[in-house]
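As the next step, I selected for study one protein, both as residues and as discrete backbone shape codes, as given directly below:
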Amino acid sequence: MILSNALRILVLMLALSVFQSVHADAGPVSVVSGTPIESHFQYWEDTGANATLAEVRALPESAWQHRPTGKATFGITDSAYWLRVELHNQTDRDQLLIAELAYSQLDDVVFHELSGGTLLREFRTGDTRPFYPRDVDHPSMLFRFQVAPDNLKTLYIRVATQGTMVVPLQIWHQSDFYEAAANEQKLHFFYYGSLAVIILINLAVFLTLRERLYLYYALAISGYFLFFAAVRGYTLQHIYPESPFLHAHVLMLSIPFLAMFSLLFCMEFLKVRSHSPRLYRALQAMLAFEILYFLSAPLLSYDTGIRVAAISAFGFFSLLLVAGPVTWAAGVRAGIFFTIAWTPLTVGVSATAGRALGLLPENFFTEYAMQIGSGLEAFILTLALADRLYREREQKIQAQADILQQQKARSDAQTRLNEALTHDPVTGLPNRNRFEWMVDEQFRQHPNGRFMVGVTRITQLEEINRTLGLDRSERLLKAMAEQMIKLAAELPMVHSTVNSEGREELVYQLSGDSFGLLVDIGKTGDDFKSLDNALKQLAEPVLLDNIAIEPNPRFGAASFPEHGKKAALLIRNAHVGMEMAPHGPHQTGLYSRKNDIYDESRLTLMSDLREALHNNQTQLYYQPKTSLATGKVVGVEALIRWHHPERGWVPPIDFVPMAEKTGVIKHLTRWVVDQAMNDLKALHEIDPELTISVNISARDLSSPELIGLFETRIKRYQLKAEQVIIELTETAAMDDPHRGLKALNELTAIGLKLSIDDFGAGYSSLSYLKKLPASEIKLDRTLLQDIESSDSARMIVETAISMGQGLGYRVVAEGIETEKSARLLESLGAEMLQGYWICPPKSLEDLKAWLDVERQVPGRGDVYSSAKRSARPRDV
């Protein structure tokens, strides 16, 4: 009822502003040369739609009604209408005339030409008929005829349609019509050309940025394009002139199509969901209605479809008109543009709907209002999208400027390097390497003390990351870290230490979702109530962006010395204990050996490894190391590979750490050294200058047999000691600094070379590394992974290279995946490269074949040409 009253008021206002009643004589229309022909006619409503021409001619004059303006709108009706117009040629020459019904949506139009009561010609047309033949190749309903000098002719025109009965009748001089039609076509071509350009621009932006907003806008404008082309009859004329049935359904489908994508564009552009849930639900409901209408339109009659379309258009455009001010009021800049753009379009749509329903008269305003409004809307919103792109670009430029301004001087690079190596980049907490070093140091200083390693894991982090995104999950981690530090500071039993920069360390980040701390049991007095209360607080929901997030932390613990005497083992056992915890919000699981389900399989794995080593079932693969100065392969690194008869390929990370803990590492090292020396002798047949790198562990350094092992194998295979390089991670070198330094000095004293592996991946003392008798450092791949895109990463790598070379080390970059990284590292001063981009690890026979090719193929000496010739699939 409210909608009906509002519509009537709007109709009255528009009618008063655009419609004027013109009274004219109902006599014949005079045709005078050089003067536009006056437009008025008489009409009669054939309610049965079955009257013949003879019956119509026999009607009394009182049955005819006069239309002085030449334009009439009768709304949606089942009646047929007969128009009658008499023309009197008052000139002394024949006049070529065109009668035009300038509305292309009329279903059935029949022109009758009479002179002196005689029917001269009958012509049938309409958009339910094939487009051709027509008197004039034009979408309007046109009839060409000729009037002799001082002659009188009468036109009877029967019009019937299922849609809106709009009859704008105009009689033209033929030359005047063609001139007016040409001018109108120019305007239409400009309009459609503008829409096409806007569509193409937004599709290009969508393909570049992959933002759905621009796709929705391009499809919405495409809907307008199709709608107006169909309404004006251009699609029937040029695309499917023999398919009037298809034309009717294209027109009906274009309306919900443009509505659907206009709604989607509105929701995306205005970000309605974030500031107005009610409006968002209303838009969703309207979208569901338009989808339903789109799917059911082919099943509806044309009459019903047009009625639904007119009401739908009025409703959804009015809703979008409300969306602009609501968004504007919420402080969203896009709401200003949207309100300005949608106002003329909504007025145009309302006028078009009123004309279609027969509530508004047929005139220039009602005929072109929606087309004008859509043009203004497209232009304004295109400016809005351009403004959006400009602002996003400015924000990116500003962000880049801020990053550059925030960079520290080169003198601070070493501090930042140590920070990156020992702290988590998200929370800023010291990392696992730092925690293990601290815990082991406490155990060394207090071997008779009682400690407990506690571990907390945020079990919901992966789900939070998938649901709310990486940014929010990182913010949650920061909030949890700050809460843990605050709670730990209030607990006297939590061990704290002060780092070299004077910052207190209480809580450590062991991995992406795990945190650890060290509890001095001696300070608890066996009363863990305060610790339990802290865990209860930690399990409470965290408020983030007005969302209460349940982190669902789980807690595990392992005691020193009962459950282990090394930090790494206690952390592992605490994680296992976490799985033994009762289900609850803050229950802590204490490690128990009898409930450790992992021990048996790991011990079985070590037993299988011993057997594999004894039966020579393990293999060595080799990855080349290339000099950037010469482009030649200067050495290879030996990498252990094990194919288990039942488990398949077992990654080294699954058995090497366990081998270190169980002592099997001594057997593994012995086998690797023996096999590597034997293979190096075979490789010297191809290149006598090749070196070989062998990895050893911290456990090997404590073995008195290590030096003898290398001495005997070098002598047995008649090798030079300087061609054998020992690789040791910086973390392993720090495991027992005094004993490790002594063992490494003894190894290098017999001529072996020392390389510090995974440099930058662990916590290390630079003053201690400086004492090591190393000749080479290998930058860890984690340092190199962002150098192509991050200025700060390149700065850290350049500092590490400069620092290494300043200490007299050769610098090797490993894990090289792309030519861009290789060239960048060369420019930063790296001396050697190793990685899949050059060559993946290969068996001995495959490596020998590869080296043979490298020696024979032209281009040897160029590391980039060599890399391009290498197949680089990732091996096991």
In short: The longest helix spans residues 364-406. The chain has a mean pLDDT of 83. Residues 758 and 780 are 4 Å apart (CA to CA). The longest strand covers residues 633-644.
